[in-house]
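Appendix B. Chain record.
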Amino acid sequence: MGFATALSGLSAASQNLQVIGNNIANANTTGFKESRAEFADVYNSTGKTAAGAGVRVTEVAQQFNQGNIESTSNNLDLALSGNGFFSLGERNDSTSPTAYTRNGAFHLDPEGFLANDTGHFLMAGAPIGTSIAEGFNLGAPKPIQIDSSQGKPSATTKVDLKVNLDSRGAKGLTFDGFTGTNFDVPPDPATYNNSTSATIFDSLGNTHTLSMYYVDVSTGTPLSNEWEAYAYLDAKPILYTSATASAISTTVGKGTAIPMDFDSVGAIESATTGTDVTANSADDFVFSNIALGSLVVGASALSFTVNPTGSTQFASDFGVNDLQQDGFASGNLTGISVDKTGVVLARYSNGTSSPLGQVVLGRFTSNQGLDKIGDTTWQESVNSGTVVLGVAGGNNFGDISSSALENSNTDIATQLVKMIV
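Structure tokens predicted for this chain:
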């Protein structure tokens, strides 16, 4: 019996050595968590004279303390700093996670899904709309798929154009329009004070040049600080045909005058009428349903506003203070980025970005209660408690770092000393 008791000690020491050896073997395994063997004494009877029957290993408990974060050159490498696990699906059509890991070494599979080396797929909430602000469907996670197709173009709907019109310019200049019959003949510089242009886009991503010509039509004593603006699209004047539609002129002409009135301190005044061409236009200039058939075939009619709010009439040179528009052409996928909350963004060559999903994390009441299934992954068990899903940065979840990986938390020196002992 004494030999069996001693043998239990040798068996427990051997198992402890196996645990230490496994820790050392995985010192360079991404996301690995070292383990320790825990022991308990054994008694076959009770009482003061009971002799011990040896020792047994009660648990090989993994230690989930944080590993060091190491930077990498792959922006699909993800590291968790703090609580939580990456959630994984077994198939690219999985609707719920079945495994969890701290190993964030992900890559694109042949179908564009984010996967790890063992063929598990990273789970995420799908975007509800087209922007991050609209949120993600975190209640129904699914694998993230990267769409490598071209980013869709978007027609211009708004142009912010703020200018300073020089109050010292020629007063009462009359816009005489074109001479001849060629639409490409530009307005006569002798008939306007200033001009500027902006590139805008139609529904197919084609570019168009929107030009604005400004004419000082001030009258009276003192002068009335009145101007008129004329809009041209690709060198053709825009006419207003009704309250809901505009058109490109099919005959030579100057287009429709847009009044711009300024007060005595040089600020543009508010609109006083509700028509498309708004008088005293601090409100938007509205261009509606401009058919582009004569300019480009197949594109939808163009509707946009020009917002002049903030334009001034000061005694200084003409200048453009602000010029922005919200349209863009199509673009090719140029990269993928992941922010600290796990939002995955596709970036395109036209300067736009599109959210593809938000990484879903899982956490448990007892990490040590998780079942080990190999490949640096774990499964939920009755001892771990039910998984709680969420996103990085909130509800007791850590942050995500892109282009980084969490190293093994094994301390080689400590494990070697334990092995020697």
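Further analysis of this model is presented in Appendix C.
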